[in-house]
Design goal:
It is built from 4 helices and 7 strands; from the N terminus they run βββββααββαα. By secondary structure, it is an alpha+beta fold. It has 2 domains: 93 residues, PH-domain like (Roll), CATH 2.30.29; 51 residues. The strands form 2 sheets. A 4-stranded antiparallel sheet has the order 1-2-3-4, with helices on one face. Helix 1 runs antiparallel to helix 2.
């Protein structure tokens, strides 16, 4: 049986990323770290739960760009702008502040970053399934449909292998059976 894998998610990072593939019987995570790829396979029949929750540090993605660009704009306008007042004006500071504000609003619009825990019958793995929590419902819906199909297929396969019940035929007596049934059982008391 040849499985056809289709990509359902990709989560990138600085040193690599994880691509998620789904087939009719398993969920495959291909985690790339620099030049190596590590594969983890999760069979759908063994899958117990996939939990996605917002990261605790997602607000830092709002504070850091806004703070850095705000401080950069203040430094540029007051330190450099004061000495180079002929070549700089309020527009330079407005560009920095506008960029920082736009970046912070963009992060807010994308929503919180996500953490994921996958539990199977024998193991638990913390791998990023989605980058943002707003996309989790879509990906989890695809996985849930595949799990239901895999478990329904496994149930049909299990019921098909069980043969129809055979009628019970009377057994033929052998000498050992007849000898034990005719021997009297004495009272032990």
């Amino acid at each position: 049986m040849q499985s056809v894998f289709r990509k359902i998610s990709r989560v990138g990072g600085l040193s690599g990323g994880t691509k998620w593939y789904l087939s009719e019987d398993c969920l495959l995570a291909a985690k790339r770290v620099m030049y190596a790829v590590e594969y983890q396979r999760f069979y759908l029949r063994d899958l117990e739960s996939i939990v996605v929750w917002p990261s605790r540090f997602w607000l830092l993605r709002l504070i850091i760009p806004g703070g850095l660009l705000g401080a950069g704009a203040w430094l540029w306008y007051w330190a450099v702008g004061a000495s180079l007042w002929r070549w700089t004006d309020f527009t330079t500071g407005a560009i920095f502040v506008g960029t920082g504000l736009a970046w912070a609003l963009w992060e807010l619009a994308l929503g919180p970053t996500a953490k994921t825990r996958i539990r199977t019958t024998g193991a638990t793995a913390d791998l990023a399934l989605v980058k943002r929590t707003r996309r989790a419902r879509q990906i989890l819906g695809k996985i849930e449909a595949a799990v239901r199909a895999a478990r329904a297929g496994a149930l049909e396969q299990a019921t098909a292998t069980i043969a129809a019940p055979q009628p019970v035929a009377p057994s033929t007596d052998t000498k050992s059976e007849t000898a034990s049934t005719t021997a009297p059982i004495g009272d032990l008391a």
